[in-house]
From TrEMBL:
InterPro entries: Glyco_trans_2-like (IPR001173), Glycosyltransf_2 (IPR050834), Nucleotide-diphossugar_trans (IPR029044). It comes from Candidatus Uhrbacteria bacterium RIFCSPHIGHO2_12_FULL_60_25. PANTHER family: GLYCOSYLTRANSFERASE, GLYCOSYLTRANSFERASE 2-LIKE DOMAIN-CONTAINING PROTEIN. Pfam families: Glycos_transf_2 (PF00535). It comes from the Bacteria. This is Glycosyltransferase 2-like domain-containing protein. Residues 5-127 form the Glycosyltransferase 2-like domain.
Length: 230
């Protein structure tokens, strides 16, 4: 069985982190290497009463943001497969087993991703399509990838780090496989370093103007980086 490295960036998500770790402890796949990267939390996340060595907690000396925390976790990871899990994510028990089996049955694929829930709302995603990916993001950060395919997150981006990641992998010849099953749920009351909102929220008429401007700015930065016409 190939080792899967699970990297969890965290900033002020202590309570949510424990729930996330609990869901990982129930995974039907082993072995797992779990690396929690604390990016300067004030609520001091702990790993709970777990077997020694099952969870590695890394505290960064200086705040680096979500992308930097993920990169540091990846640098320390030793697994053949790599997956980034948000601290407020809860995975179904067979999530990693399902992802590993799918990736191993598709040797030409670089990563696998699934549908998921954001609170009560279902995000079905879609079958992998490189052209559709260039038109807009539809793959969440929580996807299993071959470690050899991971190019690193662009730490200069304040938004769309995940979209940029998948675009970079695809531009290097990689491709993804979609699992049409909800394998994890994200908290609807998100806070901390990995605050994420679905794109439709930013298009609502009552959305905060400055937030919309910020969203559009970073969307434009990523498009320019990858030569995508607006």
């Amino acid at each position: 069985m190939k080792l899967v490295s699970v990297v969890i960036p965290v900033w002020n998500h202590a309570k949510e982190l424990e729930q996330c770790l609990e869901s990982l402890s129930k995974q039907t796949y082993a072995p797992l290497e779990i690396i929690v990267v604390d990016d300067g939390s004030t609520d001091r996340p702990v790993t709970g009463n777990r077997e020694p060595g099952t969870v590695r907690l890394i505290r960064l000396e200086e705040r680096r943001g979500a992308a930097g925390a993920r990169n540091e976790g990846a640098r320390l990871a030793t697994g053949d497969y790599l997956i980034f899990v948000d601290a407020d994510a809860i995975l179904v028990s067979h999530a990693i087993e399902r992802m590993v089996a799918t990736l191993e049955s598709h040797p030409d694929a670089s990563f696998v991703y699934s549908s998921f829930r954001f609170g009560w709302k279902r995000f079905p995603s879609r079958a992998f399509d490189a052209d559709a990916l260039r038109r807009g993001p539809y793959i969440h950060t929580t996807a299993l990838m071959r470690r050899s395919a991971f190019p690193g997150f662009d730490e200069s981006l304040k938004k769309f780090q995940d979209w940029d990641l998948w675009l970079t992998i695809v531009e290097r010849g990689g491709k993804g496989i979609w699992i049409p099953e909800e394998l994890f749920t994200l908290s609807i009351g998100r806070k901390g370093m990995s605050v994420w909102l679905p794109s439709f929220v930013h298009r609502l008429p009552w959305a905060i103007t400055e937030e919309m401007k910020n969203y559009r700015h970073w969307e434009g930065v990523v498009k320019k980086k990858h030569g995508i016409e607006s």
